[in-house]
Amino acid sequence: MELDKMDENDWKYHGEGNKSLVVSHVQHSRVLRLLKYPSEDAENAHQTTEQAFQHILNIVDYNRNVMKPLLGEKYVHSGEVVKLPLDFVRQLSLKVQQERPELRCDKVMDTFSGCGLCLPNLTHLSPCHFGDHRAPLCVEIKPKCGFLPFSRHVTKECKRKVCRFCMHQHFKLANGKWNRLSRYCPLDLFSGSKQRMYVAIKHLLEEPQNNLKIFKGGELIYSCKDDAKQQPDLNELVQQLRPYFHHSNGHYNGHQSSKSVLNEFIQVICSALLSSADSNRSGEPRKVQLAESRPLCEASPLHRELLRNGSQGLPKDCVLAKILQVQMLDNLDIEGVYPLYKRVEQYLEEFPKERNRLQIDGPYDESFLEKLKTCPSEDDGSIEYAVGKVLQYRVAMTAKDCSIMITFAPCGEDEKLQPNLEIQPPKPRFTYSVSILDLDPKPYDSIPHQYKLDSKIVNYYLRSTNGAQDLPTSNLYKDRQDCTLLFHPV
């Protein structure tokens, strides 16, 4: 990327979150991530050039030195900080403004610092040689927290029975964030059971909210509508997917049924989530059972059936297992972390110069990671224990808010498969890559907010449900057919 020859017409709007906006290059497989500011702060944004550069550098360091060692080299892309021409950034801001969702326009793109983060476009596969004309599909999933808290510090019993996501749905519905409850439950996705995972993804397709997006050839084709009252069109999605699943059963009057197309699409996603690069080199995939957590969420539509059938566990080194292990660094829950946060605050009031040594605000280097790993297992009253647990909680929160990108494309009919990369024999066959993104460090000073929010969510859930859940079981996983995947590195 030649920074002195940047042209805004070579870039297009890709998407945005709460704190940044992303544009993608029209020809090259690259994206730029640019910071956003609240509209009312736009006039003062020119004062934050140095902070913007440090902010993005912190993200890069955190990804490279903390999240990559924890989640795995093959899943994490740390990117690089770039200094962009200001004229290019300003013209780009004008160009993409008309494409931005109205609900996101309360913030404006940073046009003063010229700082950005350059990353690979994960909706594309890297150059490959399978002879197929169909564009790659990409599924972006924000899975959220995959376990129930097991900390002795938890004061409300419902937190041990119903997952945070399912409780939070009631709170968001009451506050007007969403108009319908999602039936998706993260515990189903993280269960390792293909049946439960199938149902979880089906529920994401039915109500994607901000937890599911689907791209085709780099273009967004399915997500939550800007108007939250309007549901996305599953039938339209099926039409986009039909060319990828024309070999299989489930035909009706010469055409493959919508149910069959969705079944196979979900199976491809499940296979990618459960696979790792070396999963088949020594026979059956290895499983890891994280026994400390409760595997069942009582708010899940599958709860009664799961009580009978139990949990299967995740294959070792699959992307979900990696994420879950980092999430479970939060072994005290916010109720146990908040008193430790207050201990750190009190210590810093007495010894403010210690803030740098304790790496409260970074730098995110090998020393930061070492503090995570060497934190004492029991509270010995030390400041090192309190800081270690607060840092572990913040890293766990990053993993609870990350996204998974699964990009796949059909293989050519006559392509030779390497035996150790085959997953299952039936057609259709796909080559794929899996990545983890949205791995920003969570602010130290957000812990009081998280403590208050947790209490609000739990108390509202108890009031709105009277502590009871009586949801029907689901038969959504019937009539499934498996697909074959090839591992294809990014």
Summarize the structure in words.
Helices cover 35% and strands 16% of the residues. It is built from 14 helices and 16 strands. Strand 10 and strand 11 form a beta hairpin. The chain starts with 10 loop residues before the first strand and ends with a strand. The C terminus is likely disordered.
Q: How is this structure best summarized?
A:
The chain is α+β, with helices and mostly antiparallel strands. It is built from 14 helices and 16 strands. The protein has helices spanning about 50-70, 85-95, 165-175, 185-190, 195-205, 235-240, 260-275, 305-310, 320-325, 335-350, 355, 365-375, 385-400, 445-465; strands at about 10-15, 20-25, 30-40, 80-85, 105-110, 115-120, 135-140, 210-215, 220, 250, 255, 285-290, 315, 405-410, 430-435, 485.
List the helices and strands and how they pair.
Blueprint lengths: L10 E6 L3 E6 L4 E9 L10 H23 L8 E4 L2 H12 L9 E3 L5 E6 L16 E5 L22 H11 L11 H4 L4 H13 L5 E5 L2 E4 L11 H8 L9 E2 L2 E2 L1 H17 L12 E2 L14 H7 L4 E2 L3 H9 L5 H18 L3 H4 L8 H8 L9 H18 L2 E8 L18 E9 L9 H19 L18 E4 L3
Parallel strand pairs: 15-16
Antiparallel strand pairs: 1-2, 2-3, 3-5, 3-6, 4-6, 7-8, 7-14, 8-9, 10-11, 12-13, 14-15
